[in-house]
Amino acid sequence: MAEWKLSIFDMDGTLLDSMPYWENVGRDYLQSKGIMVPEDLKQSIETMTLRESAAYIKERFGFKEPVEILLKDMLKNIILAYQFLIPAKSGMKQVVKKEKEAGHPVIVLTSSDKDCAAAALKRTGLYHFFDQIYTADELGMRKDSPEIFCALCETYGVTTEETHCFEDAFYAVKAAKEAGCYVTAVYDPSMEEWWEEIKQLSDEQIVPIYGRK
Known about the structure:
Layout: E1 6-9, H1 19-22, H2 25-32, H3 41-45, H4 50-61, H5 67-84, H6 92-101, E2 106-110, H7 114-123, E3 132-135, H8 136-139, H9 146-155, E4 163-167, H10 170-179, E5 182-186, H11 195-201, E6 204-206
Helix pairs in contact: 2-5, 4-5, 5-7, 9-10, 10-11
């Protein structure tokens, strides 16, 4: 077994069962404004950060409000879900605990809002295992690019080959592998259509007991 010097955990779909809340956030916002939702919306914003998604929706649908206002409106219901509803993913607390006990830094890298992340991780008892929470927005990079993983490795003074990443999304698994990291894929129903490709691309897989057979 490799002796890792850094572990990077994705949050949504990896640590938390939160993807059902995110899959329709753009759709729900547009419907609340009486706008017909195009079929390609979900695919268009899938790899974007929160701010990028809000900016995309603003530009594409001609909203006059600043991006910050759109972002706040889109997040209203999701923030409540992070604070009170979203559960930890089955078995992942033990995985995180094991990485932490190995003695190296363990961090979160998420495309979600940092306050939402902190609230949910505290409520689910995961927060104290992590040395830091990083968001794609604050780093100014996206999780479909190897650059973001390389940047975090540089921050901690380790190589990507010394880094263990845990991800559920195909694009993030692919980016982490391209960066040179060892990747454990965590199954999430939102990535069912990509699961065979994810298995081939990743180094190992975790399938929570509630999910896929």
